[in-house]
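Hey L., structure's done. Input below.
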Amino acid sequence: MANEQAPGWTFLSNHTHVLVCLAADGDLTLREVALRVGVTERAVQRIVADLELAGVLERTRDGRRNAYRIDPGVPLRHPLESHRRIGDLLGVVAIAPAQRTPTAGRSIRKAVQPTAAKPARKAAARPAAKRASKPTSKPTSKPPAKPPTKPTRTGRR
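Output:
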């Protein structure tokens, strides 16, 4: 019970989670980071843009991919932590690349997030009284036939 994560919040922000992922492996794609952090790829793009703007992260193009380098000397932003640097934070929470397993983030994420239940069928979602008032079989009589239509003129007089 002590190892279960409480839903709703974590001790670190998504910005820190993205930073930790990129510190462990700067060659990850943003899609891979999004899967590990548990947010959308678009959210990771915004976070990376924020980190670049703050000077924490530098993006360099490597063929069709991006590589990320973190500046460990940038001070933390909040006044309570401003006496510390990004490198200090990463030294405490980052997993060294040699210790990281390829699916470490995915296995934790699957274990923590509840699986979505399949949507219930409409009949099961209705109250029992309404289900009982509906006929259970189709009527055996045929619906009334359509009334005959007027004959159309063929164009001859």
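The helical segments are 14-24, 30-37, 41-53, 86-93, 104-112, 122-125, 128-133. Residues 41-53 form the longest helix (13 residues).

-- N.
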